[in-house]
Fold this sequence. Notes:
Blueprint: H1 6-13, H2 18-28, H3 31-49, H4 55-79, H5 81-84, H6 102-123, H7 126-147, H8 154-158, H9 164-174, H10 179-202, H11 204-210, H12 215-218, H13 221-239, H14 248-273, H15 280-304
Amino acid sequence: MPPVKPADAVRSLSPKSRRDVVRAYVALTKPRIIELLLVTTVPAMMLAERGIPSPWLVFATLFGGTMAAASANVLNCVADADIDAIMKRTKARPLARHQVSTRGALVFGVVLGVLSFGWLVATTNLLAAVMAVGAILFYVLVYTLVLKRRTAQNIVWGGAAGCMPVVIGWAAVTGDVGWPALVMFGVIFFWTPPHFWALAMRFRDDYARAGVPMLPVVATAERVARQIVIYSWVMVFWTLLLVPVTGWVYVGFALVAGMWFLTRAHQLYATIRRGGKGNPVKLFHLSNSYLTLVFVALAVDSALGLPAVTG
């Protein structure tokens, strides 16, 4: 049997139907990440409205935000194709498997970004559109191309791009950026390190193999767990800064969910201090549930129009 040539191997991995091509391009957008971003956008819009915003405005903002997030994720895949091919967690991504061309993915990502700007300008306002494009550029140019491969603090500052949907949602409703929008930005900002470092602890060897200096690669597990605890405390405290504009539904859920998350973070730290490995992936999944609960509580609180706790 003749040896398989590299070109033949690439062709064997290429999509063989239009459906496969569509699936590959959709996979580049990282839909599961986009879902989490959208979960935070709607509650931010409801808080800005102090009720339920126009369904059309909600749809328009989510649609434009989806295209913006998809653009950032696709361009991230283009820039990270080399390390995605090395890491076990990401080697099945379309570019790593040569299911789409680099040029095709690049064009797709840029087009999505342009469309998101045009859509948001036409259906919301210029401020929301500009911030969406700014989030794309920050995620790709600052986080992906500069921070990710150079510093262990990459996800701390690079995570700011993932905080923008709440600010964009607020701006779509009000046309400006109020202090509650900045508080919500901070909640996600301080949530990101515990969330991502927990995952990076599980895939430490992957990042080390790819030469990406995530904190678990350059620091001991105990130090990483300690940092997770510190950021978790700041995150929970930050959620309470919304007390002046929220009712008891939000405050109650924020406190209960916060204590739940802090307990799990401390348990992970205690286990690692005793020499155990702990279960950081469990904390990673819990972080998704925590953020969803807090923002769903915010949406319910806003929809009910309850008086502020401090009012």
